[in-house]
Write a structure and sequence with these properties.
Blueprint lengths: L1 H44 L3 H11 L7 H14 L2 H14 L4 H13 L3 H14 L3 H13 L3 H14 L4 H13 L3 H12 L8 H11 L3 H13 L5 H13 L3 H14 L4 H13 L4 H16 L3 H18 L2 H14 L5 H12 L3 H14 L5 H20 L3
């Protein structure tokens, strides 16, 4: 009996000891997991995503579906731009947790970024069946817009604005579609609704001014753009379209002032330079002092860049030269040299092309042009000069007696 009692108590001690050890191990495991996830979230926040993935992988067990781990891992891949890996994980997460709308939103975003717009729209519809989220509605419009289905995009933008009428990004997208379709009244109407609550908005008010301008309602355009200028919206489009609107209403002094302001901001626009010249001319200003300098600017801006033109003709010439199409090679080498007289190699290439054509007289002419500008100390100079004596004799033999 005593022996049994001892064995019983030993067994009890072992049982509780094992239980205590198991509990301690479980507590340590939970503590390690909690710390790992905390480390992962910190690493993600400082964009050390590779290190975050490495830590998550250490916890991964292939036989267990670990939603929290897979969610963090998917988010890491999303942050890194590894969209296909992220999409695969979000597919698994959505299948195992179909009620989690966050996973569907991520899938929608991934489809959009991978330009899989039909799939993006399909997932968006699934999300909207659960919850009418305005951002998802406008996102659906963006996907249709990427597919160049403006009518569908506009439908979703309008629906989004029912929930969030003050979303200027969506209003501007909707106005863009309407103006592209030349529905200027429609664009003005959408802007009116927005501006009734935000009258001095610096995005929508100028867009409405542009709609008035393109509708040829220049007085309304002036009112919209002038209000923006008075508020301090000092950007190129405001001055440009205000100047154009004043020009159309024959307010030439104001037009010139605004167009010159635009020129100070961007002097690369040839149509702006022409507009300034035209306004000055219509104002009967001195042609020589006021108008002509601007017309000359227009002319200079319309001329092609000589360096780029020369390089373009060089490429044409080189291709024809290698293929033995000598007439085309000559024609293009001449143009390359005309645009860039420093490209002296063109002269010898033209000479050689004429030589192959057995037009020795012209070959001599172009080789002599080359020698007149080439470096006499170069080996190529010497070889051309030696060749020239032969060509002169051939050219002499061709001359009629």
């Amino acid at each position: 009996m005593r022996k049994f009692s001892i064995c019983f108590w030993v067994g009890v001690c072992i049982f509780f000891g094992v239980a205590i050890m198991a509990h301690a191990q479980q507590a340590d495991s939970i503590s390690l997991r909690t710390k790992t996830f905390a480390d992962v979230r910190y690493l993600k926040s400082v964009y050390k995503t590779d290190a975050a993935i490495e830590k998550l992988t250490s916890l991964e067990k292939s036989e267990v579906f670990d939603e929290e781990l897979l969610s963090e891992l998917a988010d890491c891949y999303f942050q890194m731009g590894k969209y296909s890996e992220a999409a695969h994980l979000y597919d698994s997460l959505s299948f195992c947790a179909p009620g989690n709308i966050v996973y569907k939103i991520r899938k929608m975003q991934l489809n959009f970024r991978m330009k899989q717009f039909i799939d993006c729209i399909s997932v968006a519809h699934d999300i909207l069946a659960q919850d009418s989220i305005p951002a998802i509605i406008s996102y659906t419009g963006d996907a249709f817009q990427k597919m160049e289905q403006g009518d569908s995009a506009l439908w979703y933008y309008r629906r989004s604005l029912v929930y969030r009428p003050d979303n200027e990004a969506v209003v501007s997208k909707a106005m863009g579609i309407l103006m592209e379709d030349e529905d200027f009244d429609g664009a003005i109407s959408i802007a009116d609704s927005f501006l009734a609550r935000n009258p001095d908005n610096t995005v929508i008010a100028p867009l409405q001014g542009l709609a008035f301008y393109r509708k040829n309602d220049y007085e309304s355009a002036i009112e919209a753009f002038q209000r923006q200028e008075d508020l301090g919206n000092d950007v190129y489009p405001i001055h440009y379209y205000l100047g154009q609107s004043y020009w159309h209403t024959e307010q030439l002094d104001k037009a010139e002032r605004e167009l010159l302001c635009a020129w100070q901001m961007d002097s690369s626009k040839v149509d702006l330079a022409y507009s300034i010249a035209a306004v000055k001319a219509e104002g009967f200003l001195s042609f020589e002092e006021e108008v002509q300098p601007w017309l000359e600017r227009v002319y200079e801006m319309l001329l092609p860049d000589p360096s780029m033109m020369s390089r373009m003709y060089q490429q044409y010439a080189s291709c024809y030269y290698r293929r033995g199409v000598w007439d085309k090679a000559i024609e293009n080498y001449k143009e390359a040299y005309r645009y860039n007289p420093k490209f002296t190699a063109a002269l010898s290439a033209i000479g050689y092309s004429y030589q192959v054509k057995k037009d020795y007289k012209r070959a001599v002419e172009w080789f002599e042009k080359y020698l007149a500008v080439a470096d006499p100390s170069s080996a190529y100079y010497s070889s051309i000069k030696e060749n020239l004596d032969f060509l002169k004799s051939e050219a002499f033999m061709e001359e009629p007696e």
